[in-house]
């Protein structure tokens, strides 16, 4: 059943009562405890307040080995206040990003499928006691219409689909919506509009449900812990709600791994508690995943609290300033150096510009309202977004609402190539394979070639003339670099394949990858 009012077989209450499987929490606890020891984290931060510049420099140097950082070292970095040392951390963060991910940036868009939610997260516009929100769950046809706009009008290849926690958007619905999105293929200019990777941001699920998402071809499974601090978690997620169960959420990604999803993403909602604690929590999360599965998170997200419709934020005591935000991104880059780092349009264009060299992914041309893409690009009108940022339909307000074309142009002007590559999971380079390869710099070679090919495709199919001109310049630079790196990093055969594949793309062929 999907709705208490429909007289179906299961009420919302029954659904809620049966969702959490206690044994799928207990099996991960050690001596009945989860892996976040609040007192130990606070003590570690305190103990490492005055690390010497020599120690800080040694920690920075070690980060270039691309291993998860010791918690004492993370604490020491978080406590740095000296402007020169901080600058050294920023420089290392940019260099390590480049060492592991080169000049690539990946773009994606969120697709909000429903605003119905049984939880009452104090900070979220979708909480069930917020009467000012229009409640809606998209039908499969509506999801397809949204994804069609994203794939054919805007030109995205990668989405993160976002769901409230509600029986109407349960695992079956999520899996079906993913399949529907993958089914789209439509001619655009010289090529084809299609979504090649669907990541999911949803509430924690039991293992059997996660297997359904795995079968439906999930990219990354994201569950943000919001805050790792137990007491604060209890304060912002009322007891008795599903989300009020801290360990159920904390082990959501462990269950995903056990369900066969080897690509998972951590995140914290910055502003709920002390940002230093949250960074330590994320590193502890990565460590526990590594310990149990030999594999840490594929990406790390750093959403910052944003205003939301009819939502009181007077209780917030830990707002993160712009400077703190930039610094925590730098520390995370060093602390979990193999992971992708995602920043979103919650931030302003200026902020995004200033941190992108330390990050790997950002969203673009996003709408966080339910059904907002189809509304912004009506089928009978020429492409071009309207004003659809209506507070009553969305979870929070966006800071950067520029088009994908404008963002790609800006990134290209800054020297980035935007990669639309989704080859990894389609040819088995996921999980441990990709993470080991990334750390060793090996994957970077495949990624570089695929970035060139997929960016060329995008320029052919979606770019405005100005963006195409700037984008083509970047592609020429990349081609030159690959040629110069033969035979050290690329083989002659790879270069030949690249040149031929590029020519085939220019002639209209699509989806060619290494
Ligand atoms: N309902 C699912 C959940 O809570 O995990 C997934 C979707 S929820 C809409 C996605 C994320 O949005 C949350 O994990 C939270 O970090 C973020 N979020 C919620 N309210 C926010 C706000 N006011 N500002 C910024 N981010 C917010
Ligand atoms: Fe629901 Fe997620 Fe919003 Fe909480 S953050 S109210 S679970 S949509």
Description of the molecule:
The chain is of the alpha/beta class. The chain is built from 22 helices and 11 strands. The strands form 2 sheets. An 8-stranded parallel beta barrel has the order 1-2-5-6-7-8-9-10, surrounded by 6 helices. The chain has a two-stranded antiparallel ribbon with strand order 3-4. Mean pLDDT is 92; it is low at 1-7 and 383-387. Bound molecules: S-adenosylmethionine and iron/sulfur cluster. S-adenosylmethionine is lined by residues 123-124, 162-165, 201-203, 223-224, 226, 269, 303, 305-306, 308, 346, 395-396.
- Stretches where pLDDT falls below 50 for ≥5 residues? 1-7, 383-387
Helix content: 40-55%
The radius of gyration is 22 Å
Ligand inventory reads: S-adenosylmethionine, iron/sulfur cluster
Could you report the average pLDDT, rounded to the nearest whole number? 92
Label the structural class: alpha/beta
**What profile does the largest beta sheet have?**
8 strands, parallel, barrel
Strand content: 5-15%
Number of helices: 22
Number of strands: 11
Side by side, the strands of the main sheet go: 1-2-5-6-7-8-9-10
Based on Cα principal axes, name the global outline.
Answer: globular
Determine the N-to-C terminus distance.
Answer: 44 Å
Summarize the structure.
The protein is an alpha/beta fold and 514 residues long. The protein has 22 helices and 11 strands.
Task: Write a concise keyword list for the protein shown above.
514 residues; alpha/beta; 8-stranded parallel beta barrel; 46% helix; binds S-adenosylmethionine; binds iron/sulfur cluster
């Amino acid at each position: 059943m999907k709705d208490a009012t429909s007289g179906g077989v299961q009420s919302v209450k029954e659904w809620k009562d049966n969702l959490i499987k206690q044994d799928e929490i207990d099996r991960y606890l050690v001596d009945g405890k989860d892996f976040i020891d609040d007192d130990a984290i606070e003590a570690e931060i305190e103990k490492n307040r005055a690390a010497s510049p020599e120690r800080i420099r040694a920690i920075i140097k070690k980060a270039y080995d691309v291993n998860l950082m010791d918690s004492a070292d993370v604490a020491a970095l978080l406590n740095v206040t000296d402007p020169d040392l901080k600058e050294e951390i920023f420089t290392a963060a940019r260099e390590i990003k480049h060492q592991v991910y080169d000049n690539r940036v990946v773009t994606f868009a969120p697709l909000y499928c429903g605003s119905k939610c049984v939880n009452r997260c104090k900070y979220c516009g979708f909480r069930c006691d917020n009467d000012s929100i229009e409640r809606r769950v998209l039908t499969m046809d509506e999801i397809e219409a949204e994804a069609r706009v994203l794939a054919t009008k805007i030109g995205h290849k990668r989405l993160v689909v976002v769901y409230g926690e509600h029986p109407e958007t349960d695992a079956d619905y999520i899996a079906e919506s993913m399949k529907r999105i993958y089914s789209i293929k439509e001619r655009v200019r010289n090529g084809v509009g299609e979504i090649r990777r669907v990541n999911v941001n949803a509430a924690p699920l039991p293992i059997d449900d996660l297997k359904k998402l795995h079968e439906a071809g999930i990219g990354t499974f994201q569950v943000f812990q919001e805050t790792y601090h137990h007491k604060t978690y209890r304060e912002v997620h009322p007891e008795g709600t599903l989300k009020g169960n801290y360990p159920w959420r904390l082990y959501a990604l462990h269950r995903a791994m056990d369900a066969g999803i080897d690509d998972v993403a951590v995140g914290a909602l910055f502003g709920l508690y002390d940002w230093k604690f949250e960074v330590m929590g994320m590193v502890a999360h990565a460590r526990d995943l590594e310990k149990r599965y030999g594999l840490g998170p594929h990406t790390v997200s750093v959403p910052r609290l944003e205003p939301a419709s009819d939502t009181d934020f007077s209780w917030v005591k830990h707002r993160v300033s712009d400077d703190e935000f930039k610094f925590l991104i730098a520390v995370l880059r060093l602390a979990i150096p193999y992971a992708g780092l995602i920043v979103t349009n919650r931030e302003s264009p200026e902020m995004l510009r200033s941190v992108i060299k330390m990050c790997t992914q950002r969203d673009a041309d996003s709408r966080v309202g339910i059904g907002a893409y189809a509304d912004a690009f009506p089928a009978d009108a020429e492409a071009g977004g309207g004003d659809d940022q209506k507070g009553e339909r969305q979870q929070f307000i966006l800071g950067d609402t520029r088009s994908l074309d404008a963002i790609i142009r800006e990134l290209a002007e800054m020297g980035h190539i935007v990669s639309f590559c989704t080859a990894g999971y389609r040819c088995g380079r996921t999980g441990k394979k990709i993470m080991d390869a990334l750390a060793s710099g090996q994957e970077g070679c495949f990624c570089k070639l695929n970035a060139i090919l997929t960016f060329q495709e995008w320029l052919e199919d979606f770019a405005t003339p100005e963006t195409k001109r700037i984008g083509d310049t970047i592609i020429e630079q990349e081609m030159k670099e690959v040629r110069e790196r033969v035979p050290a990093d690329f083989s002659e055969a790879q270069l030949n394949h690249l040149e031929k594949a590029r020519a085939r793309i220019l002639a209209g062929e699509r989806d060619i990858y290494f």
